[in-house]
């Protein structure tokens, strides 16, 4: 009865601040740290890894498409080899900060459109899985159940953590509806939805259908309005339902 | 009587080709591979590491200032912490490609203005040395004798390889004269100059002064006109003078 | 019996050289100058406009997707408003260099994937046409016949120049087959094909079909192997067939 | 007895928001709009020009160094020609948005380190003045008195608006102390200081010296904490002292 709480961290860039990592880091167990392509820069990465260490949070790499202006949410038609290389590059860069801080890189989670492309396309899924395996076969890959990348990762022996989305909508096939700007949500409603997903393996899709869902990590976003209230409600909801919060061990 | 021959490699970017790495890699023993800030991109890095492996060349990271347009040759006023972070980021990215290829990262050599800044400024030198040590204390740092960074590296216990420049001019204090565009040179003249530097520890500065010089690696550039003729002449000159060509071992 | 010869110019970036503009500019009547998103930088733009002025070549803006690494040839899912803004930005930047040189901006030609997207998608076509009209209603828009953008431009009253491709293949519907790297061609064959397209309004598609084609400007690429030989052959072929070479007047 | 109130606007980028332009635009008479190098992007530029039009605010271009991560506040060693080209590029891009909105570009104000470099260096000052003159000799150039650029602009016949800084400190020679992050200030204190500068032509430098100062425009920053309170106090202070607020006319 253990569950992980992951969030995207380190999305500030230069003088631009996004989210409140110093606060949000207190509530999560795993951090997906941006690697400088869609968000983050080298200074933000160092600072974010330091924060994660301070709060005992496991650090994963959160590679994205090379498009800072679009925040990695504008799909780009890269070749499979370009995706492999962009993932190795970004994960390697973050891994260096993690190891310089005396920690071990815990996982990789693709960001935004890259995440969606991996869910749908075999070539993208293979590129990402190959990159993860070539860097360190012990790394977890955070993805969603029911997608192409899950099947590919399992067939390649890549260690997978399936995740549930606290604050994003699902379509009837279990796919995620990625929006450019995350919307506000009611904390209690989000918490109840999360507990339902984790306990019953079910969630209501955006079209009203009830769909099966499965995961051992819950993703909460730190850049939504009321993010701290939401993550607090989710934590309390999960603990109240008997779950202990922890990141998957190696 | 062993000497290393190093060159900057992997400086192409996207559709833009610079140098002829596939040819030049045959003549050197250590490659300094650009890491995507001043030159190179993730696909070029993978390809360049593959070439180095094919020809048995040791691979080092060649981090530069974040300025692709200026090729890292326009000085930028970064803070010491920004330089630390930019070096960790770039070296980490390249290290991932090297390890994915089953090799071990051999060294770090700062590029262009970053190299010059490290030679002159204590804060820059410390930032780079700290980055190298935090990533892997076994890494060599390729720099020039007679600069601030040499003193800092030695005091910190960072392993140093001092290098000599086959095709760039020195000022009277032993400093390098970095130009935006490298000029053409006479192969035989370059080779004789290199052998003189290595054997006698002396070279003529641009102002005609004879200066003392010391190093166990010779840097040759692959993007000068006639680069292959020059490196061939240097190799032949050194071997004719009784030196064997090899990269420093771990 | 007048025909225009256009080519993409100003595609170098920083230390990276692409094509031989100083030579190729002698053979063309209209230059499509890259604007810094997919290729070119501000210094290259100034130099290229200067070259065009020297050789009496009309200057057009050649805006592309914001992806230097992909050279604007990797499709990106931008919104219509983002495309409008990216086109206004790039065309405005180039227009300033043209006017600073005492000339008048002649046309706009979308580059690479942006060109292909305009050919197929109504929203992209409208965004580009709106941008051109808002900047200067006298500007020509260089595009291909048979696409969405032609219909949109004509309905909006944007002045259109239809172009033929000397050195790229067509599919059976008259669409262009955009490749990442342009291939080498036989000069005489290219010239004969161009004269055929211009005189007879027909060309053989890649699948062997004969398709109808129409245009008053011929596009030749300067970054293919043998580009100067090809453009010389095309010029000679057209002049031999009785055409005079000139850019469309205002 | 007329005074201008200018502020840097349009400094958001992609998903990153900086300042509250929709609110701040109500209080100023001239907007310096970022042009995509140190801040801003094409979509932000369009939106910001639209806001300025809505509130009757004159629009100037605010070109900066090509360094988004450093927000144009990290000095870079560009050549004079590179600066000329980067200014023409950025001003041209913004000018297109201004003209597409049916307005006329009002002025140019260099940003951050570029502003400081122009204040101190003849080559940088000349490059900027040449760019402004080549684009449109009617453009105002917003700068500080007592610097190199003022002398150069006046000798070249470039129209100058000297400005005073409401919320930044001066050194004993009248130079501005540029900080990476702007600090908070007391609105009443800032207002009194501004009125003093405008009425008496004097201000206290950071070292306690009283220095002579002169200007017909007051710059207030919108990204400081309490920026709206400060600009309101400054407006009220100036109007209370008998000044009417307006942008310099053509």
Helix content of chain A: 25-40%
Q: How many independent structural domains of chain A?
A: 1
Q: H/E series of chain A, N to C?
A: EHEHEHEHHEHEHEEEHE
By secondary-structure content and strand pairing, the structural class of chain A works out as alpha/beta
Estimated share of beta-strand residues of chain A: 15-25%
Number of H- or I-type helical stretches of chain A: 8
Point out poorly predicted stretches of chain A: none
Distance between the termini of chain A: 17 Å
User: How many strand units of chain A?
Assistant: 10
Could you tell me the mean pLDDT of chain A? 95
Query: Looking at CATH, which topology of chain A would you report?
Result: TIM Barrel
The CATH class of chain A turns out to be Alpha Beta
What is the general shape of chain A? globular
Task: Walk me through the structure.
- The structure is a homotetramer of 250-residue chains.
- The model of chain A has no long low-confidence stretch (mean pLDDT 95).
- In chain A, helix 3 packs parallel to helix 5.
- The two termini of chain A are 17 Å apart.
- In chain A, the strands form two sheets. In chain A, strands 1-2-3-4-5-6-9 form a seven-stranded parallel beta barrel, surrounded by four helices. A two-stranded antiparallel ribbon of chain A has the order 7-8.
- The first copy, chain A, has 250 residues and is an alpha/beta fold.
- Chain A has one domain: Glycoside hydrolase/deacetylase (TIM Barrel).
- At the A-B interface, helix 2, helix 3 and helix 5 of A face helix 2, helix 3 and helix 5 of B.
């Amino acid at each position: 009865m253990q569950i992980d709480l992951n969030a995207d961290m380190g999305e500030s860039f230069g003088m631009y601040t996004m989210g409140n990592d110093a606060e949000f880091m207190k509530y999560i167990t795993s951090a997906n740290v941006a690697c400088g392509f869609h968000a983050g820069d080298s200074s933000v990465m160092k600072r974010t890894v330091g924060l994660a260490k301070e709060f005992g949070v496991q650090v994963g790499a959160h590679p994205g498409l090379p498009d800072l202006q679009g925040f990695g949410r504008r799909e780009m038609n890269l070749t499979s080899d370009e995706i492999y290389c962009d993932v190795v590059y970004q994960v390697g860069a973050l891994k260096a900060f993690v190891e310089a801080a005396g920690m071990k890189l815990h996982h990789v989670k693709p960001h935004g459109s890259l995440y969606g492309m991996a869910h749908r396309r075999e070539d993208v899924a293979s590129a990402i899985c190959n990159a993860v395996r070539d860097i360190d076969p012990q790394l977890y890959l955070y993805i969603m159940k029911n997608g192409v990348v899950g099947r590919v990762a399992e067939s390649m022996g890549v260690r997978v953590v399936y995740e549930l989305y606290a604050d994003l909508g699902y379509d009837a096939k279990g796919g995620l509806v990625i929006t450019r700007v995350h919307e506000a949500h009611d904390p209690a409603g989000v918490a109840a939805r999360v507990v339902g997903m984790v306990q019953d393996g079910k969630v209501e899709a955006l079209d009203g259908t009830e769909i099966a869902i499965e995961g051992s990590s819950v993703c909460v976003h730190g850049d939504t309005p009321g993010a701290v209230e939401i993550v607090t409600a989710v934590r309390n909801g999960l603990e109240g339902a008997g779950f202990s919060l922890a990141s998957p061990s190696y």
